[in-house]
TrEMBL record, chain A:
Protein name as it appears in the record: Electron transporter RnfB
Record keywords, A-Z: 4Fe-4S, Cell inner membrane, Cell membrane, Electron transport, Iron, Iron-sulfur, Membrane, Metal-binding, Repeat, Translocase, Transport
GO molecular function, one term: electron transfer activity
SUPFAM superfamilies, alphabetized: 4Fe-4S ferredoxins (SSF54862)
GO terms under cellular component: plasma membrane
Pfam families: Fer4_21, FeS
Binding site for [4Fe-4S] cluster 3: 120, 140, 143, 146
Residue span(s) of domain 4Fe-4S: 29-88
Ranges for domain 4Fe-4S ferredoxin-type: 101-130, 131-160
Binding note for cofactor: Binds 3 [4Fe-4S] clusters.
Binding site for [4Fe-4S] cluster 2: 110, 113, 116, 150
Cofactor: [4Fe-4S] cluster
GO biological process: electron transport chain
Automatic annotation (TrEMBL), chain B:
Chief location category: membrane
Subunit structure: The complex is composed of six subunits: RnfA, RnfB, RnfC, RnfD, RnfE and RnfG.
Cofactor(s) required for function per UniProt: FMN
GO cellular component: plasma membrane
Family according to the record: Belongs to the NqrB/RnfD family.
Alphabetized UniProt keyword annotations: Cell inner membrane, Cell membrane, Electron transport, Flavoprotein, FMN, Membrane, Phosphoprotein, Translocase, Transmembrane, Transmembrane helix, Transport
Lineage, opening ranks: Bacteria, Pseudomonadati, Pseudomonadota, Alphaproteobacteria, Rhodospirillales
Protein name per the record: Ion-translocating oxidoreductase complex subunit D
General function of this protein: Part of a membrane-bound complex that couples electron transfer with translocation of ions across the membrane.
Enzyme Commission number: 7.-.-.-
Organism: Magnetospirillum moscoviense
Annotated compartments: Cell inner membrane
Record has Membrane as a keyword: yes
GO biological process per UniProt: electron transport chain; transmembrane transport
TrEMBL record, chain C:
Start and end residues of each 4Fe-4S ferredoxin-type domain: 360-390, 400-429
Cofactor(s), names only, from the UniProt record: [4Fe-4S] cluster
Domain of life: Bacteria
Listed name of the protein: Ion-translocating oxidoreductase complex subunit C
Taxonomic lineage: Bacteria, Pseudomonadati, Pseudomonadota, Alphaproteobacteria, Rhodospirillales
InterPro entries for the chain: 4Fe4S_Fe-S-bd, 4Fe4S_Fe_S_CS, Ion_transpt_RnfC/RsxC, Nuo51_FMN-bd, Nuo51_FMN-bd_sf, RnfC_N, Soluble_ligand-bd
Pfam family name, one: RnfC_N
Gene source species: Magnetospirillum moscoviense
GO molecular function: 4 iron, 4 sulfur cluster binding; electron transfer activity; metal ion binding
Membrane topology: Peripheral membrane protein
GO BP field: electron transport chain
Residues in coiled coil: 453-480
Length: 179, 360, 494
């Protein structure tokens, strides 16, 4: 009887110690989910989601107290990727699908103040002091930061036009579920 | 009505086919055998047939209405008529009316519409209906009568038949007999070897033509076969399921019969008794519940053949086609997953083929 | 010649008899021609004329816009009246920048057309390729891939065979049939020139056996050349699919994500071969093509040779107009063609047919639930499982559809054609393929931007660090100076 209890107690203590040590030694300092989620986000720190940057949004997502549909530049693809990672329904229907946008500078209004250039996180605006600035459309992800700081309202957000190369058939009207 | 030219992608031509045409071709293929069956079993069989098909159609209409669909198109596609038809011919021909109704409710409402309607069901609705009444009402479901051809000697008249089908407290004990499969099974249980009891079973010709007690569809192998061949000719079904099913059944029967004729009945006996032909050509080939690829269909057919033989030989029930079909139905999604055709330019594992020929 | 079996496929009603015996007729010059700057796969061409310019027939009006692109030429002499957006002959109904030319009625060739190459077989293959590129030739079977790029394949692959595709497996279409019957010598000559450019010793011409007259004409024209074989291939849609035709002729299956050139075979269309003949032997660029105008709604189905840029409405009017309102107007064949948004779109290089189809011909019915009959699986010439792929796509599971091979689908239309439930299967697959590649493009774009953002942030950090360091250094220097002065003061005080 004593032997039984004793041996079990010894086993328990030993295994507990091993597990405890392992937990200490192998501890991961950050939440791995947070990093994975951050990798899925565009990383442009545009702040359109209402958080300071992508890592803060990722942290909130990992805690599960924010909707997955807040990332505007990421669009539907990002929502679906986040939903997959978090194992939730991709309720992209709630999310008003915004056509991708890019900024455009109205030449007659730009005073060459460089504010937008400093604001742009993806180096999509070129320009020098007192010179007309230009957007490189391919590098612009439509975060609208420049749009907000422009003192002369020279920047407008345009929808990226659908070209024939990018056009594809839409999903067919589904057949009725019941006859 | 929209007149947009470009609201859908090609093709802009279509084979002259639709669901209704397909389903009504199946009904046409079934018709000769069924008419022969109805003639053989007389008025009670006709009444049961009408009640069962009618109950299935009624269930379909109610279910479709409840789910907000149009009842016209529900019946128009003909699928429920096939369900009702197959269900009716799988019942004992003189069974009371409520057997048909209960089977119809379980088959159509539970097995078909609870799963989402046409195309969504996992299990063959007719077989679900049959199995539910078989396990619930074993007495009525094993009260087979010997064929009494319509207007012939011994065939009950119209009014007397009404009594058989719709009367209360009807007992068929006095006239019911065992089906050949059931007979062999009971004799074996009594210690009489298969090869001995076989001598007292109906002869081969009677078995083939259907002059023996059993459900309607078990009669008349030649007409069922003719209907099946017609469907193959019309390319509604392919040979894969019927041939693999019947082939397996025959091979298993023949092999074990060789080993021990006193315990196992012959391959030929397995082929011509029970619902082998009806099952192989009309029940197992149900589109919705069978695999879509040819490889998968062979696996499916072999599975049903094997299970039918096992159930007939070792289990408590003399006939196992319905159970075998349902069991294999449940495997259909897995079979579809694993037995896909090889894609063009790829290995069967889905990797691109190695390049060859360029260096010749 | 031994042929090899090809899996799957269908036998649609061909309805070729309406135009098969109609000799090619020439369309009178229309009042205006519309030349879109994108008539091919790849980058758009760049206009080099402007409104007000006079142009001569064959003059370059738009130059190639990249490696995979093609030039465009004035189809007749006349005046450029505008360079503006015009609806493209495309299902999207989107506009393309288009050069509008008003013909002057003289139809004068430009003086500076490239000189004919007298002996193309003595010429370097690059000379031929350059000529084909300069002539704006693209695949005329419908895909419109720039032909010069495809003639380049000989430089990277050891080629055995040039396969000339005369299968014309699409119902209704007879333009290739007529070209082979009426211009067999030109097609054979063009094929020999292309084979020379490719370095392929053998030429095989594959024609479906429902075109016996074309087989005979081509056989006669090829008789003098021992390296040319004219083969009748089985009538089995989609025999005209490049990979399936190669399999029927050589028995080799082109591996996924590879080209037929990896098997030593390059495939070109018969009309393309004829265009190459004209470009090399006569110095004429691609400015006209033969089109089949057919369908139950068309009054006089015909094979018409038209200047590129002709409005489809003009072409249909030439064929007697419509006897009844068509349910569909299709660019190409009924199996793989594009539905046109209207008749106000121009004829382009890859347009092999204009079909005005009646409701009876299209056989459209509302889709019913799938009954899993498996016919689509049996007939799929690509060995796919359309029923499962469509189910995934219907439930927005595009990744699963991709795992089941939706990107291997060639959109031949066979599955939709046979589906008893009239489910628009190919429409589902077109949607999935488009959405998947759009998502892929978007992902790549976001990755690029992510890289830019990271670079930007790194640079800013570096700048800030440098600033901080500079500030610290300045502070340190100041402190040191101050201390030095204090020490000095102390010294002085001492």
């Amino acid at each position: 009887m004593l032997l039984d209890v004793g041996s079990l107690a010894v086993m328990g203590v030993t295994l507990g110690a091993v597990l405890g040590t392992a937990a200490k030694l192998l501890a991961v300092p950050t939440n791995p989910l947070e990093d994975e989620l951050q990798a899925l986000l565009p990383g442009s720190q545009c702040g359109q989601c209402g958080f300071v940057g992508c890592s803060q949004y990722a942290a909130a997502l990992a805690k599960g107290d924010t909707p997955i549909t807040l990332c505007a530049p990421g669009g539907k693809g990002t929502i679906e990727a986040l939903a997959k990672k978090l194992g939730v329904e991709a309720n992209a229907d709630d999310h008003e699908e915004q056509a991708p946008q890019h900024a455009h500078i109205k030449e007659d209004l730009c005073i060459g103040c460089l504010r937008c250039v400093q604001e742009c996180t993806s180096d999509a605006i070129v320009g020098a002091n007192k010179q007309l600035h230009t957007i490189i459309v391919d590098q612009c992800h439509g975060c609208a930061k420049c749009f907000k700081v422009c003192p002369t309202e020279a920047i407008e957000m345009c929808t990226v036009p659908v070209t024939m190369a990018a056009w594809h058939w839409g999903k067919p009207q589904s057949e009725p579920a019941h006859h | 009505m929209t007149t947009a030219y470009n609201d859908r992608a090609a093709p802009f031509t279509h084979a002259p086919v639709n669901v209704s045409k397909t389903m009504f071709t199946v009904l046409a293929a079934l018709a000769p055998a069924t008419l022969f069956n109805l003639w053989m079993f007389g008025w009670p069989a006709i009444f049961l047939f009408l009640v069962t098909v009618g109950a299935c159609v009624a269930c379909e209409v109610i279910c479709v209405r409840l789910s907000g669909g149009s009842a016209d198109s529900a019946i128009g596609d003909g699928s429920v008529l096939i369900t009702g038809w197959l269900l009716a011919v799988s019942l004992p021909p003189w069974a009371p009316w409520w057997i048909g109704v209960v089977a119809a409710v379980f088959g159509v409402a539970l097995a078909k519409h609870a799963f989402g309607g046409l195309g969504q069901n996992v299990f063959n609705p007719a077989m679900v209906g049959r199995v539910v009444v078989l396990v619930s009402f074993p007495v009525q479901m094993t009260a087979w009568v010997a064929p009494k051809p319509l207007f012939g000697a011994g065939s009950p008249g119209f009014l007397e038949s009404l009594h058989y089908t719709f009367g209360r407290d009807v007992s068929l004990d006095a006239i019911s007999q065992a089906s050949p499969l059931g007979f062999i099974k009971t004799e074996l249980a009594r210690g009489i070897a298969v090869d001995q009891s076989m001598a007292n079973a109906p002869g081969l010709m009677d078995l083939i033509l259907g002059f023996h007690p059993g459900s309607m569809g078990e009669a008349s192998v030649p007409l069922v076969l003719a209907g099946g061949l017609y469907l193959m000719w019309k390319r509604i079904i392919s040979w894969h399921i019927p041939v693999s099913l019947l082939g397996t059944l025959f091979v298993m029967g023949a092999l074990f019969n060789l080993v021990d004729p006193a315990r196992f009945s012959s391959g030929l006996f397995h082929l011509v008794t029970g619902a082998s032909f009806l099952g192989a050509f009309f029940i197992a080939t149900d589109y919705v519940t069978s695999p879509v690829s040819k490889k998968g269909q062979i696996v499916f057919g072999v599975g049903i053949g094997l299970l039918t033989w096992i159930i007939r030989t070792f289990a408590g029930y003399p006939e196992g086609m319905a159970f075998a079909v349902l069991l294999m139905n449940s495997l259909t999604p897995i079979i579809d997953q694993h037995f896909r055709p090889r894609a063009f330019g790829r290995t069967s594992k889905g990797e691109p083929l190695p390049v060859k020929g360029g260096e010749q | 010649m031994k042929l090899f079996p090809v899996r799957g496929g269908i036998h649609p009603e061909y309805r070729k008899e309406r135009t098969a015996e109609q000799a090619i007729v020439t369309l009178p010059m229309p009042a205006a021609l519309y030349i879109p700057l994108q008539q091919h796969i790849g980058a758009a061409s760049e206009a080099i004329v402007a409104a007000g310019d006079s142009v001569k027939k064959g003059q370059v009006i738009a130059k190639s816009g990249g490696v995979v692109s093609a030039a465009a030429h004035a189809p007749t002499s006349g005046l450029v009246v505008a360079v503006t957006e015009v609806t493209a002959p495309h299902a999207s109904g989107l506009p393309l920048i288009t050069i509008i030319i008003e013909p002057d009625g003289k139809d004068e060739w430009a003086d500076d057309l490239p000189a004919p190459i007298a002996d193309p077989f003595a010429a370097d293959s690059k000379v031929i390729r350059d000529r084909v590129a300069a002539s704006g030739i693209v695949g005329m079977g419908g895909a419109a891939f720039p032909s010069a790029v495809k003639l380049n394949l000989g430089t990277q692959h050891k080629l055995q065979t040039l396969l000339i595709n005369g299968a014309e497996c699409e119902p209704y279409l007879t333009c290739d049939d007529r070209v082979m019957r009426e211009f067999a010598d030109e097609v054979i000559d063009g094929a020999r020139i292309m084979a020379h450019a490719l370095g392929a010793p053998n030429i095989v011409i594959g024609i479906e056996t429902n075109k016996p007259a074309a087989i005979e004409a081509m056989g006669k024209a090829a008789a003098a050349h021992t390296n040319i074989t004219v083969v009748g291939v089985p009538v089995q849609y989609p025999m005209g699919s490049e990979r399936h035709l190669v399999q029927a002729i050589t028995g080799l299956e082109t591996p996924a994500r590879k080209l037929t050139a990896d098997l030593g075979v390059v495939v070109h269309n018969v009309a393309t071969a004829r265009a190459v003949h004209k470009a090399v032997r006569l110095g004429q660029p691609l400015v006209r093509r033969v089109i089949t105008v057919s369908g139950g709604a068309v009054a006089r189905p015909s094979n018409v040779e038209v200047p590129l840029g002709t409005m489809v409405a003009d072409l249909v009017a030439f064929c007697g107009g419509f006897t009844q309102p068509p349910r569909r107007v299709v660019n190409g064949g009924p199996m793989m063609g594009q539905p046109l948004p209207s008749l106000e779109v121009p004829v382009v290089k890859g347009m092999s047919g204009i079909l005005g189809l009646t409701t009876e011909e299209t056989g459209e019915e509302p889709a019913k639930p799938c009954i899993r009959c498996g016919t689509c699986v049996t007939i799929c010439p690509c060995g796919l499982v359309p029923v499962e792929m469509a189910r995934f796509i219907k439930h927005d599971r595009l990744d699963d559809a991709a795992k089941w091979g939706v990107t291997d689908c060639v959109s031949c239309g066979s599955c939709s054609y046979v589906c008893p439930s009239h489910i628009p299967l190919v429409h589902y697959f077109n949607y999935a393929k488009g959405a998947l590649s759009a998502a892929d493009r978007e992902r790549r774009r976001l990755d690029t931007i992510k890289g830019l953002v990271e670079n930007h942030n790194a640079r800013i950090e570096k700048q800030q660090a440098a600033k901080k360091a500079a500030a610290a250094a300045a502070a340190a220097a100041k402190a040191q100076a101050a201390q030095a002065s204090t020490t000095d003061d102390d010294k002085a005080n001492a």
